[in-house]
Amino acid sequence: MTRAFAYLILVSMRNRFVSQVKRIRNPRYALALLLGLGYFWMMFFNRGMRAPGGRQGLNLFAGMGASTVLPLILLLLTAYAWITGGDKYALAFTEAEVSVLFPAPISRRGLIVYKLVRSQTAVLFTSLVWSMLFRSGKGGAIGIVSYWIMLSIITLHRLGVALIFASSAEHGVRGLRRSWPAIAAFGVVATVIVNGLLGLRTSFASATGMGEMMDIAARGLSTGIVGWALYPFRVAVGPMVATTTAEWLAALGPALVLVGLHVWWVLRTDSAFEETAAAASAAQAQRIRAMRARGVSSGTVSVKAARRTVGLRPTGAPAVALLWKNVLWLSRTGQVRTLVGLPVIACVAAVGFAGGHADLEPMVAILSAIMAATVLLFGPMTMRNDLRGELRRLPMLKTLPLTGRQIILAEVASSATPTAAVQYVLIAAAILALSFASTGVPALGLRIGVLIGAPFFLLGLNLANFTIHNGMALLFPAWVRLGELGGSGVEVMGQMMLTMLATLLMLLLLLVAPAVAAGAAYFALQSLPVAAIGGAGLAGGAALCAEAYGLMAMLGSSLERLEPMQLG
User: Fold this and answer.
1) 257 vs 345, which has greater pLDDT?
2) Alpha carbon of residue 466 to chain centroid
3) 482 near 473, Cβ under 8 Å?
4) Does the model's pTM come out above 0.70?
5) What is the full DSSP assignment across 5-63?
6) I need a labelling partner for 51 at 20 to 30 A (CA). Which of 89, 148, 311, 339 fits?
């Protein structure tokens, strides 16, 4: 059976590699592959891009408090797995594997071993990429092993938690009784660590800088009973945060022992998981089919979520119904929670750190501003409840009583409006955090002006940004992912780079006229700061909306002329 599993895994990997090589004959994949390879060469193999002297340290995390932060992050991931019952997709197999392996005379342990070995392909690839990102050439092998250890522990733990909860679902109270040591141990660890963090509040308040705060946290979380409670998490990241070869060798042994303990735990977990694995496999297959149909990152709608709705009047503008449908889809697929998560965290941090330390409020403001910029750049890559997910349904779109311009407007607004709302809340959180700062607080008029002008500017900016992305999908459908899952590999990064560069260039061109309008409004009203900043935001946003609407009108004509056969 071992030889059969090895043959299946190796042949699957070979076939996948061959299929990706054949795709290079397509010009868009070839160009994307060249861009991806060029990016990797410049970042990891070009000596001019390295630090002075051509040598990087063994560990780029040194001095960043990684030895304190990373164990806590692993603790949060572990807590999330245990509280939510683990990732149901951790037990998922492909439809072909379910139909072939489950009826075969294969033991439960054999299926688990196959799942473990199969997951190692993704773990090894990710370890290789992370090693190139954070390690130098001489430390490459060390980096691969370090990241492989941490990622393997995370993968094994997710699988073990999923098996335990499958056991509880299969055996009821008896299944929970079998896993009570692990559940009790995690409860004790969580209680001890939370109590230890609460005990450090006085020391944090007396710290004079972020460096001293990190030192206090490192000492408090590495000594006493709290240190013992966090010991497994420090062991998991020990090789990754080692700064010298001697430290790495000393941390390697305990980390490998922890990996072995996880393997032993997963293999001995007595869980009749066939039904749970089959259900998880079916859910994963449904999710993939939905992604193929919609071209979005998460398209599974549960029965409970399907009951959530928002009232819509039976009469009104037809374009509103299309906008309503796409926004409702965000709610039913859970993407609204993802959108709301970032601004909620930023607002809670702004209020929670109020008056706590001189460095905390500016840090929250900077991180909120960075997140807002990140949403602008990468939001269109994930927020795809617009024309990019609907072009595969072009025959249905053409039957709607709408003009092409109205369809484009409704589709773009479906993505641009919630994205602009998220960015506005993030900016508001940044202003709120700066308002609590002890020094360097912006003037009240400046803060009010930003709050007044930001929504208009952000709405126009996102309408223009998403119009460009939807226009590229409409005019160049062969070069943009529509209703299919994207491939994997370097060419995917190259394709994302190509799309991002093209959209950023066009967006910069569109920002010229709004910048002139905003500058004129500011200088005309500069005697009153609130009106100057608010008017600049309103003028810039109005100019961006006008440009976006003009592009929508042109794209609407192209949509009316587009035929389904042109999409391929």
Assistant:
1) 257
2) 19
3) yes
4) no
5) HHHHHHHHHHHHHHHHHHGGGSHHHHHHHHHHHHHHIIIII-GGGS-TTS---S-TTTT
6) 148
